[in-house]
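User: Just a sanity check before I run the rest of the batch. Below are the structure tokens for the first item. I only need the designed sequence back.
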């Protein structure tokens, strides 16, 4: 896509922005004094602590912001995944895909990424201080990408970011069974139903945590990606009638303001992923006017899968430096090592044959 929608470079740039947020968040929120995020549950205390950190800003403020907001790279990944599904499987109206081959194909794609990082991490974890105690069923569930459905997923899934693989597998299944080439009303209905359902949970309860670990919690940004891909042309025509740069700038500013404001209440917090997606799209559109920045983000997007699976390895190695008091040195070493290791992991992943989709 060029003038009619996202180019490959723009998609990779948005993916790069998402992974930057995720891998920095996954380091910062491990630091004791730093404000923790509201990702799976809503804790008003975390919001109050962030407000205090902003009002009494010091050198740690960037760490607080990355810890609290960085996990919103996940909705951007879900948005892009849904966008890609529509472009790949719905552009050709003459060809349909069967459910079982579709699910098997995407399971193997996810497994290929997961297993390389999981094996490397478990070996490192076993020989470094405070190794995680794996149970037999936990390992089997990780290999089958179903550990999200187990009780207390935050205690079962290790390393923590790997919950995303189970989430994506579930969303692929939901897409093929319920949303593939269906009327847009189905997509909106599921997004509304699963978002509103969260309002009836205890904001700090274990039930909400488990709910949001699974496809229900990711349905809103995933649905937006599907809808954006299907209605991109009329949206771009509307944008073209206005001043595109001004429209994108206002969208970014308004979306950012709503992200901050809505993060302060339980109901609003459940809607934040939608505005993360609109902010991300607007930001990438604006970066298109600065090719150097766009290309830099796109390069990060090119190694995003490898960086996602390998950053828990470098985090465990370098987090003791920051915890010992040299916060910024540990973070810098983590960033440099993670990016370099991701580049190597990408070369390794490219050597593993890709699965074939049998229609």
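Assistant: Here's the designed sequence for the first item:
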């Amino acid at each position: 896509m060029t003038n009619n929608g996202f180019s490959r470079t723009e998609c990779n740039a948005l993916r790069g922005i998402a992974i930057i947020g995720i891998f920095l968040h996954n380091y910062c929120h491990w630091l004791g004094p730093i404000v923790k995020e509201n990702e799976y549950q809503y804790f008003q205390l975390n919001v109050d602590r962030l407000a205090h950190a902003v009002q009494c800003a010091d050198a740690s403020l960037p760490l607080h912001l990355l810890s609290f907001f960085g996990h919103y790279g996940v909705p951007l990944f879900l948005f892009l995944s849904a966008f890609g599904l529509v472009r790949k499987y719905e552009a050709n109206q003459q060809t349909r895909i069967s459910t079982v081959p579709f699910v098997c194909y995407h399971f193997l794609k996810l497994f290929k990424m997961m297993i390389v990082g999981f094996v490397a991490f478990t070996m490192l974890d076993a020989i470094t201080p405070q190794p995680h105690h794996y149970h037999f069923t936990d390992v089997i569930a990780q290999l089958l990408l179903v550990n999200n459905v187990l009780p207390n997923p935050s205690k079962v899934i290790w390393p923590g970011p790997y919950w995303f693989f189970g989430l994506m597998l579930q969303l692929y299944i939901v897409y093929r069974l319920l949303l593939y080439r269906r009327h847009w009303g189905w997509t909106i209905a599921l997004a509304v139903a699963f978002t509103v359902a969260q309002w009836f949970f205890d904001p700090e309860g274990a039930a909400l945590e488990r709910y949001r670990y699974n496809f229900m919690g990711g349905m809103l940004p995933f649905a937006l990606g599907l809808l954006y891909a299907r209605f991109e042309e009329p949206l771009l025509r509307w944008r073209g009638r206005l001043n595109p740069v001004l429209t994108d700038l206002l969208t970014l500013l308004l979306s950012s303001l709503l992200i901050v404001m809505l993060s302060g209440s339980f109901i609003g917090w459940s809607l934040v992923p939608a505005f993360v997606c609109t902010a991300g799209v607007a930001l990438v559109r604006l970066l298109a006017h600065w090719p150097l920045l766009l290309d830099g983000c796109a390069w990060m997007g090119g190694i995003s899968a490898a960086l996602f699976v390998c950053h828990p390895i470098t985090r465990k190695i370098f987090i003791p430096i920051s915890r010992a008091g040299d916060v910024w040195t540990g973070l810098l070493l983590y960033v440099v090592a993670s990016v370099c290791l991701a580049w190597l992991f990408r070369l390794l992943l490219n050597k593993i044959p890709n699965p074939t989709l049998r229609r």
